[in-house]
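Exercise 7. Predict the joint structure of the components listed below.
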Amino acid sequence: MKTFILSAAALACAASAHAQIVVDGTLDPTGYGPELWAQDTATQFGNATDGLAGQCNGSEINNLHASLDVQGGFLYLFIGGNLESNFNKFELFIDCAPGGQNTVRADNPDVDFNGLNRMGVDANNPGLTFDAGFEADFYVTTTNGGGPITCYANIAQMLTTGGGSGGYIGSAAPGSAIVSQVGVEIATNNSNTAGVPAYDGTTTTGSGSGCSTGIEVKLPLNIIGYPGTGDIKVMAMVNGGGHDYLSNQFTGGCNGCPNLAEPRLVNFEAIPGVQFVTVSAGGGGNSCPADLDNDGEVGGADLGVLLAGWGGASPDLDGDGSVGGSDLGAMLAAWGSCQP
Ligand SMILES: [Ca+2]
Ligand SMILES: [Ca+2]
Ligand SMILES: [Ca+2]
Ligand SMILES: [Ca+2]
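Solution:
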């Protein structure tokens, strides 16, 4: 009985960790896992220096935190950085299920003036291609500009055979969430002035680590097509206003490369390194999957979550499809502080 009470209390505590995430473009102190990746390349799309949540004079993608809350049914992403207030585009691709598109097709839903398909294969160009092993299933894009500065967003499925559904999901002021009818939320806070520097003749690299404002996204797992278990891969990038000129700001980095330019000619497999970030269930990176409540240690609260899911499909730490003794063993083996 004593154990049961502890579990119930721990579960309530664990549930609150995700509930503390507010989609506003700032990194919530609890709820997110550790920084999963930080930028290595100075921005050739302008170093942001304005320091305002709205008006912004540069674009950079600095770092990424995530929380994959399988029980609650949401993927939360925080991508630190800035998106210039000139209608440049933030592009986000999610690979969360078998199938999808390793090369962007041209027959996806027509969203944001057909911007997704603008990146796709055509008669003369191979189409934007991701690293091997990344097959996008869902797409989110946001942009901001005008007066007063307003943020806009679109979403679309990226099915293996094309087609699917998608559309414009609304607008909001900087720092406030755009909330779609299906529960997608996205917010932009442009106040970062740290992160990577400007890319010029002498400076081509820098560090985006530690950025705490940028673009924040909440995605219902049923909407993006998550099958209920497994990692989720994400890739974010900054593109030109017509979805037609890729910057050198994207997840994974490129060790100081210049802008990638025409997206239909870009193949990330040909760019050294891995240009996507893997998010494991529980919200942390691969480094500490047993830290189910993302508080930096594996302990009683995490055990409570595991026991609550006993016999079910999640939290499935060892990926065998069910929660049982092997998951408990994995948790006990990781007991204590997560190693950085
Ligand atoms: Ca937030
Ligand atoms: Ca996929
Ligand atoms: Ca900067
Ligand atoms: Ca690559």
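Discussion. Residues 127 and 312 are 41 Å apart (CA to CA).
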